[in-house]
Records
---
Amino acid sequence: MPTRILPAGADPDAVRSLVTLLSQLPDAEPQPPVGDSTQLVDTLAHLAAESVDELPEVVVVHERIGPVPALELIREVALRFPAVGVILVTTDASPGLFAAAMDSGARGLVALPLSYEELASRVQAVAQWSTGVRRHLGHGADVFGGVGGTVVTVSGAKGGTGATLAAIQLALAAQASGRPTALVDLDLQTGDIASYLDIQFRRSVVDLAAITDISPRVLADAVFRHDTGLVLLLAPAEGERGEEVTDRAARQIVSVLRSRYEVVVVDCGAQLGGAGAAVVEMADTALLVTTPDVISVRAAKRTVRMWDRLQIRKAEETTVVVNRHSRHTEIQPALVQRITGTALARTTVPANFKELQSVVDAGRVHELDGRSSVKQALWALAGELGLVKAGEGGHRGGPGRGTVGFRRRKE
């Protein structure tokens, strides 16, 4: 059986040379190369959604891939696709880099300039390892549900649009439907999830930031288990400590969470930092919450354009959610979609703060009455996004407008 090999790199000349050499290997079947980290992860996720057997045995990552650095990308691939063997191609074949690559989950390292014999030997060994892992684990879907959980980020177009409340209710809906769910507060300086749920905590996301290998025990010590069943990873009580959470740390933390939970909801707040940008980039679904007023919609447009300029997220890959919607407002969801150029959630959240005031003031938003129109809308949104098991966990929403939001990988 031929060995399927997926090359990945941003340098066209280097990738062309790599593909040429790979095509000369015996029983090798090079796949069309991918040019960046996002495309690589999306390609693997798409193949895994079809069938685990569709995944390539070997992925060859060139050191100059981006925007996610090569070692961080290898770590994510190893966590999400554990039976895919990754080889790093690099000019630095030092013992230090070799050790770092192995720690990240690579199965081999090949030095540049490429040598046919070295590449052939490494590909063959990694392909045998991958085949052995698949044979040992079997091909059942339950083994490889395996590609990792769904990551949804919730960002505010500006402060006060209701992103945190939306994130909490989406997570509650997923958990209530029977899907193990983690809720992460990545609004590092002004995160309010702990206040909304009236909890006291000692550990936060900062406690994981400096750890290079997050074990299940370390993760369990850092999270807070809420009475609802939600697993919470909270923002630090001291906002200045948020700077300790780098983009690299954020990617690793969310990758570990998605490997252990079916749904990971991340509140990214309204301010863009390196950590939040990294998670929005890697998310399966990125929500941007706005209210139907000129200031918020302009802010949403600015955010979408900034994400696009920074190559974090394309406009069409971002889903806008309209909060505090009313038929009497001049700005309606269809207009928001035209202005921002994004996808638009069919479900809108009604303007009815009176329903929320008592639970917000008490810090008990998880006790919001099931008859609340706001809760029904947000749980319907969870159903629209595929966060709840079919037939459970959500209330049916009314007729919506717009298009279905873009999702980066199939469930």
---
Amino acid sequence: MNLIYAAVAFILALVLALIGVTRVGSWLIERRDQPVGEFADIKGARIHYVHIPASTKADLPPIVFIHGASANLRDQMLPLRPELEGRAEMLFFDRPGHGWSGRGAGNNENPSAQAATIAALMDRLGIRKAIIVGHSFGGVVTAAFGREHADKTLGLVFLAPATHPWPGGATSWYYDLTTIPVVGWLFSKTLTYPAGTLQMADATTCVFAPNKVPDNYLGMAAIPLVLRPSVFRANATDVAGLYSYALGAAPHYNEITAPTVVISGDRDKVVYAHIHSVGLVRDIAGAELVWVHNLGHKPDWITPDLVVGAIEKVAGKDIDLAAMARTAEARIAGDAYGAGKCADLKEPQAELAPT
């Protein structure tokens, strides 16, 4: 009996220690990665955003950027703002529950609800219509926005999107575990910070592979913000709910009428481009698919010039995206980062970890 008491006491002490480590770690993350924008209360959520007004020399319409899972507004703002500064009004924001944004009622795993929050934020800021640019999980929110807020949509640009059902419908085990009541709460409070800290660099290598992770990417883009328990649970809920949402939403993508460009790499190791990207171009009339050889999951960081070209194209400019893609391919042709560590996704399997 004494051994049982000792074991229980040890487990309890370990749990409390891990909770303490996570609290201290979260405090350090928040101290290092402070908010960089403003806040607005939108549909029950306190949304963190960066709004860049148009200049007098702007030649593009407003642009709204939707980041993927495990990320925040900096992930798109850092590579794309310098490319577009002065050319357009821009809105970057943390999706509900991510970065510094609160989750809010009705903004859980449903991309349609998140799209409605974006539309309301646009109204608050006086943005009547915009080009919507979504990366990875942000792609399914972009599709929801284009379908359900067509009156606010000038064009859509999808970057390595996750939008359609995939065979098996499974996601990484830790996402599913985190969504289990009580167990998931305890998991996020104890293990996600220490385990995530140890795994984050290797995981990021495979997100970018075969391309190189930019120097100090994790710090610059404040990616560790996702390791805070509440954000990790929101992120897990989003990803774990993607399959069921896509089952219902994908058959309606043919209702989207906005000009659309989809950019994907043939070496994407995170999502199945031949399911999601090809599916979008099949479903949306007139959509253009831009394949980039030897590109991984991060067109926004690796080929920002091509992303700008896609924005220009849906804005109505005469842009040869195929030629731009060939230029980008020549630049990254020799990339082989993550070789032997990150397996290519070649056939549909029961795995998806969008970022």
---
Amino acid sequence: MSYISVRGVDHYYEWIQKPSGSQAKPVMVFIHGWAGSGRYWRSTAAALQEQFDCLLYDLRGFGRSRGKPTAVTKASEALIESHSPQEESEAVGELTYELEEYTHDLAALLDAMQIQRAYIHAHSMGASIGTLFLNRYPERVEKAILTCSGVFEYDEKAFESFYKFGGYVVKFRPRWLEKIPFVDRLFIARFLHRPIPAEERRAFLQDFLLADYDAALGTIFTSVSKAAAELMPQEFAQLKVPSLLVSGEYDKIIPADMGRQAAALNDKIEFVVIPNTAHFPMLEDAPTYLQRVREFLQIPAPEVQAS
């Protein structure tokens, strides 16, 4: 496994690329969502490796990126009751779990790998990070694909219930859960409209169980908050990088209407809905998803070999 130090934290990364002789290919960086890891992007990256060198990495505190540069207090547990993003940021030390902080992690990762410009391909919470990155580092991005993202309205009671429930979910994650038959199918059912391969289901459950407690809880408070509800419409409106926003037709986590509203804020955003999919359209209907991505990037579809 490959690791690189980014702002004092060891980050896991991997390349999916196909040798192209002396001709250099552009880099596409993949950003995963909450409690996931870069490995659910592998099949998408493999399908695009003819045109891109694909870089997958695990966000700080998720997947195989485990380290922390400073000591973290136990104050996060109290946030299950207090649900305060500001207190969470103060509790976790020098590097917080604000989404903007993750954009600086990405910039530092690109610097460490001597990548000047890249394509961004991001999903869910990762797409929020990607959107912020486009506005803070526009000179470093060619184009972006933002999957299952959008704008939402603040609802105090709903958010309070979400924080309470999310806190308990993060706290109760015994490793023996993955040993229970069919628990992976039950766990991911809310995220899907169509089935995905069993290895993908198991990997997502494993990533959820491995996620760092403070990172998992901290990003709940920073990505779903009144501040985020006010910030994200402004961020989408300010985008200057050509972007494709992809929604799943039956996504219950980030409904397609949220993506449609975000895209309506800026003519730099092209919006598409993948029919009969939910929160993982790239896994639920890979052919349609890849077709839309290739059309946006203006790259040819792979040739079909005659049998």
---
Amino acid sequence: MADWEAVGLSGFDAEVYRQLLREPGMPVAQHAEALGRPIATVEAAVVRLAAVGLVRSGSEEAPAPVDPRSGVGMLVRERRAAIDGVAAMTDQLAREFSAGQLRAEPSRLIEIAVGRDAIEARIEDMLRGATEQAVGTDTPPYVADGSHQVSSAELALLDRGVRFRSIYASEVLDHPAWVAHLTSMAERGEQARVLPQVPLKLLIVDGTTAILPLAGGDQPATPSQARAVVVTDSVLTNALQVLFDQLWSQATPLRLTESDAVDPAAALINLLATGMKDEAIARQLGISGRTLRRRIAEIQEQLGATSRFQAGLQAARHGWR
């Protein structure tokens, strides 16, 4: 049987409505007799049905039911709109909840993840919970040639249509496995940019939750020594989001897929702009170092540039990038 409470009606209200549909035009007393219920009880149900639009107003003595295809349909749509309205408030309610929790217990602002497994699990939880966007930065030291465990969570996020933007230190492009990883991510929808130097590793989800390592250094921490701090919705997460946006505006778009760089000259210019070393560029383009140097010289001559930097500026003016 249908759960009429989902649209604000009791089982008895539904029983009365169905009786009205079967025997339209009868007085309430006869409906009450057919249902074996007191007249006053049936009258009260008719009033409730009229209030929600399932009985025409002014027909309480001989109730005239509304066609369920319009009456019930309208009732369902109204309830659905109300539910959608409440759902739309979820983010605001979550912010109010977080603010209340922080006022009551400020220590809730920060969570420390200890050990690489715990950090990776926390990152996966954050990515699984993303609804609008995730942004991140990555810089040496690198734990491995491609973060496969995290990338699987990233792929699931992209498959859900959540926007993902990443900024990488140009050094990552010197590692073939990482280039393959970034190419795969770009094909799935990740937007990536590069900078010669990225100040920190960072992940921010929906602008409200951020995770970053507690310690820096040139060498990756051992699995047991790794520490990361998770910061929840606060002025700190707002500041980290601002930092990311500033870095994003300064970074160079990373174009590794064929669809992103159809023109070979434009592809080369974009790879040069990322700060990749010649060896990495040659490997990415599948050419020798000698051929690469020849192509760079040809582009400089074509653009009337005397240096790679000037070639990049001229290429931008000509719309190559």
